[in-house]
Structure formats: structure tokens, C-alpha cells
Known about the structure:
It catalyses: uridine + phosphate = alpha-D-ribose 1-phosphate + uracil. One of its GO terms (molecular function) is uridine phosphorylase activity. The protein is an alpha/beta fold. The chain contains seven helices and eleven strands. The protein has helices spanning 11-17, 35-42, 78-90, 141-154, 174-182, 192-201, 226-248; strands at 28-32, 46-54, 57-64, 67-72, 95-104, 114-123, 137-138, 158-166, 187-189, 205-215, 220-221. The chain has a five-stranded mixed beta barrel with strand order 5-9-8-6-10, surrounded by four helices.
Amino acid sequence: MKMKKDIHMTAKDLLGMLQIKPGDFGNYAIVPGPADRRDAVLKYVQNPVRNFSFMEYTFYSGEFNGTKITVGNGGRYSSDSAISAEILSNGGVKNLIRAGSCGALKEDIQVGDIIIATGAIRGDGVTPYYVKDDFKTTADEKLNAALAQACKKLGLRLHQGPVWTTDALLRETREIVEKYASLGAIAVDMVSSSFLTIAQLNNCKAASIMAVSDNVITGEMGFTNINYYEAEQNIIKVALEAIKILETAPDS
């Protein structure tokens, strides 16, 4: 039995079903995971208008500092984040910023520090359907530079390097963790790989900035730590400040 189409449902099909039209989204999108972090970003956005609700994810577009931006809770895992990245990058967004969280893979990285991914080491189950093993997933250098500049302006502890993405949160064993740390990963999350890869394939600039919630090497759990809570707020401020920086740059 043969399928009638090469792909059952494409990003274009999904955009049509969600009734998203050209110009509905902003040039920038800030994409956190949980809805409460999305709502925290929206407090800075003027006149937000809901673009769509799909499954449990809702996106809005409005004005920030004179620039139209889009904000939505775009998924907590590789699979749902991949769908959001497809929708946004195929819907006309040119700059995607993931505002997430991660576990540190170096002893000197503390709970509450900030990580900017320079790229991703793919351990997720989504990207093998998109790219071959030798594909190099990278973040956009210009976006990363603006995020780093914003971190410096706000006086935050920042680390930059590759991030390992996994789907198996409860199987971060010593053997597996040490393998990916030896490959250069400074943190682990469940999103950056699919988010950055899909944006890259769609010629969309993308970056991933994360608050450190725990340290996998030392075993420290910081999910209820005030420093982690503050870092969650800080990555929002950094993402917004980075947009200001980019929009006021001479070549913007």
C-alpha cells in the first residue's frame, strides 16, 4: 500500500489548519516551555493578540519597544518543540530565541547561572528524521552575541558552549553523562537540539538561552532554589534586551 502524498502533513498544512497568515507573527519569537514563563514574557508586550492555540500551546504577537514579537509556550520536549519550531520558522519568524532551563555538566557551573548554547549534540529522537548523523547543529552567532551582551549588561554569570539534548530525563546515567561531557557538552536539556536544527533547516536564525536548574555532575538539585527562580526571570530580561540590541544595531 502506497501513501498518496510524500509527507502526510507538512508545516504548510499545519499553518493552514491554524489559519496563520503572512505577517501574523513578529520578526522575533521568544519561546519558553511552560505557560507561566510565557505569561511572564507577555507582561512586557503591548497589545498582545492571540495567534493560535494548538494542543496545549498558545502563541501571541504584540509590540515590544516598537518591534513586533511573538511569544508562546512552545514545548518542554524535543517532539513538541519541533512542531513549534516548524510553525514559527515556516510562518515567517526570522529570529527564534528559546528561553529554557538545563542541567549543568561542569562542576563550576552553579544553579542560577545562565547558559547560551553554541550548538547542540543531538541525543533526541526527533532530529534523526530530519538530518544525518554528521549534520552540525549550531546556534546563530549574531543572536548569541546579542544575548551575551545582554547578560553582561545585567551582570549575570554566563557560560557558553555545546548543549547535549536527550529525551530520557530519568536515564542520565554516569556512563551516558560522562560520554557527552567528554564530547564538550557543558549542559543538558530536552529541547535545544530539535529547536536549533529545525530552525537551521528552514534558514531561520535561532538561539537557546537557559537557566541552570541543577548540576548533573555534583548531584545538586536546585529546582526550588531561589537562584534558579531568579535565573528564570533573568533569561526573559536577557532575551528582551537582546532584541533591543539587535534592533538598534547599525546594520539592523
